[in-house]
Structure formats: C-alpha cells, structure tokens
Write a structure and sequence with these properties.
- The protein is mainly α.
- The protein is built from 11 helices and no strands.
- The protein is globular and about 55 Å long.
Length: about 260
C-alpha cells in the first residue's frame, strides 16, 4: 500500500513539476509576444487582428520566437506600404490546420517575396497617366487616392498569387498591357478585370493562356470575348444605356 502511495505521490510531483516548467516557459514568452505585437501595431497592423492572432498562436503552443518569425513578413510588408492581409490570412489558416510554425513561416516568406516582386511591376503601371485616367473615370465620386490604393492592393495580391503559380517574370512584365486590353475590350471596372485574372490563376489556367485571354478581353477562361452574364457593356460605361439600344431585326413578319 505504501509503495502504491509513493508511486502516486511521485507521479503527482512529476506532473506538477512539468506544469510549473511549462508555466515558466509561457511566462518567459509573454515579453516576446508583447514586443512583436507592439512592433506590428507601430507598422499599422490592426490591433484587433493582432489580438486574435496572439490568442490562436498561444492556443497552439507557438513560442514567442516562432510567432515573431511568422509576423515578420507582415510587418515588413506593412512598413513598405504593401498589402499584408495575405500573410495574416495564411497565418490563421496554418494555425487552424495545426501546421507546424516553421512550415507556416516558409510559406509566408514566399508570399512576401511575391508581393515585393509584384510591386515593381504594378507600381510602375499604376503611375502611368493612362492608368490614372482609367481609375479616375471609375472612381465615380469616391476619393481618387483611396480608389487607387484599393485597386493597387487588389492587383498586388492577385499578381503575387500568379507568381506563386510559377508564372515567369517575363510573363508578368506583359501583365499591365494585358490588363489594359482586357479592361478596354470588356468595358468592365478595373477591379473586375483584376478579379477575373485572379480566378483564372486559382483555377490553374496556364500563364500563357491567361495573358492570351486578357488580351482578348476574356475574363473567365471561356470563349474569346466572354464576360460574366449581366456585366458585359453595363449601362453608363460608354455614355449610353444598353437598354435603350435598338434591338437587331428578327426577320420579316410571318417567318
């Protein structure tokens, strides 16, 4: 009986000792988390999202050092005025799927690299007079600066996705011209054109075909010139309401 009691007592001390060690390790990580959160907030990342990320990371047993590695790409992007949402979304996705922290960090570094490479191409195109004129015409009363920033971020994210699908740099260089052509031919808003490109990328359409589709005004990967139903030539895009256009003749009566 004494042997049994001693065994139970030893096991209890072992459990309590392990728990105390874990609590000490967790307490030592708190300053690391706090410092990382403060750095991220200073870079402009939303506090509410940071709080949620910290909660999920701690629930998954992520150390302060690992959390810092995961957050560094988002902090760098925010400091460079580049969209960081793709990084934060991937962090949440990885934590939800219980992917090991080092593997999450590897993916995040690739996303950061894609956004930095996309910025070189997209920002050069955004600054062109023709592009600025297109954005102003589509802003429709909104602040042009805000409309430009929103379109830029969307296009950067879509372009980064394209790069992750192994689209070559020389193909990416053709993207601005292809987007211009798609916008002119489809007469859809620039944001819709960028979304159409992203859908083709995510659907696995080869890079060369995506460029060809865009040059033809094909946003969905269907027949040339195909655009989503109800959106082709929307009212007001060319100063004329499509509903007022005369319908083509149907043939002589009685046929």
């Amino acid at each position: 009986m004494k042997k049994i009691n001693l065994s139970i007592l030893a096991a209890l001390f072992l459990v309590l000792g392990f728990s105390a060690t874990a609590d000490v390790a967790f307490a030592q990580d708190i300053p690391n988390y706090t410092e990382i959160v403060e750095t991220a907030r200073s870079a402009g990342i939303d506090q509410a999202r940071l709080d949620l990320l910290v909660q999920r990371a701690q629930e998954r047993g992520v150390t302060g050092e690992q959390f810092g590695s995961m957050m560094q790409p988002a902090i760098s992007l925010a400091n460079s005025n580049l969209p960081y949402n793709p990084v934060l979304q991937k962090v949440m996705e990885g934590l939800a799927k219980r992917v090991p922290a080092p593997q999450i960090s590897q993916v995040l570094v690739r996303i950061e690299s894609g956004l930095n490479r996309s910025a070189v191409i997209v920002d050069g195109w955004i600054g062109q007079d023709q592009t600025q004129s297109m954005i102003r015409s589509e802003s429709r009363g909104r602040d042009v600066q805000l409309a430009t920033a929103q379109f830029r971020n969307q296009l950067l994210e879509n372009s980064a996705q394209a790069l992750q699908q192994n689209i070559r740099e020389e193909q990416m260089q053709q993207l601005p011209s292809a987007l211009n052509a798609a916008q002119l031919q489809s007469r859809l808003p620039a944001a819709a054109v960028a979304n159409g490109m992203a859908e083709q990328v995510l659907s696995g359409v080869p890079a060369g075909n995506i460029l060809e589709n865009l040059f033809k005004g094909n946003l969905k990967g269907g027949p040339p010139g195909f655009t989503p139903p109800g959106l082709a030539n929307p009212p007001g895009r060319d100063g004329e309401d499509n509903r007022r256009r005369p319908k083509p003749p149907t043939g002589p009566p009685g046929n």
